[in-house]
């Protein structure tokens, strides 16, 4: 979100368990977010592994 847009205080990042998802989480951390809770991982019926990770902005 380094495009200058207003940052939300809470974001839930989701995606397929791949490098792009890890880059999405890493990008949020680089933008000042911190991890909130543990990641969630599930398998779709077709075998695709999906991930979710909540991130929050620290209190000022």
Give the fraction of residues assigned to helices. 10-25%
- Domain count: the total is 1
Q: Separation of termini?
A: 19 Å
Order of helices and strands: EHEE
Characterize the biggest β-sheet.
Answer: 3 strands, antiparallel
| Strand order in space, largest sheet | 1-3-2
Q: How much of the polypeptide forms β-strand, as a percent range?
A: 35-45%
Which class do the helix and strand fractions yield? alpha+beta
List the defining traits of the structure above:
60 residues, alpha+beta
Can you offer a commentary on this structure?
With 60 residues, the protein is of the alpha+beta class. It has one domain (10-56). 20% of the residues lie in helices and 42% in strands. It has one helix and three strands. The chain has one helix at 19-30; strands spanning 10-16, 34-43, 49-56. The chain has a three-stranded antiparallel sheet with strand order 1-3-2, with helices on one face. The longest helix is centred in the middle third of the chain and has 12 residues, at 19-30. The protein starts with 9 loop residues before the first strand and ends with a strand. The mean pLDDT is 93.
């Amino acid at each position: 979100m380094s495009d200058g847009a207003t940052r939300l205080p809470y974001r839930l990042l989701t995606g397929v368990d791949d490098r792009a998802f890890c880059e999405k989480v890493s990008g949020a951390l680089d933008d000042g977010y911190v991890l909130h809770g543990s990641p969630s991982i599930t398998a779709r019926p077709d075998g695709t592994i999906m991930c979710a990770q909540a991130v929050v902005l620290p209190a000022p």
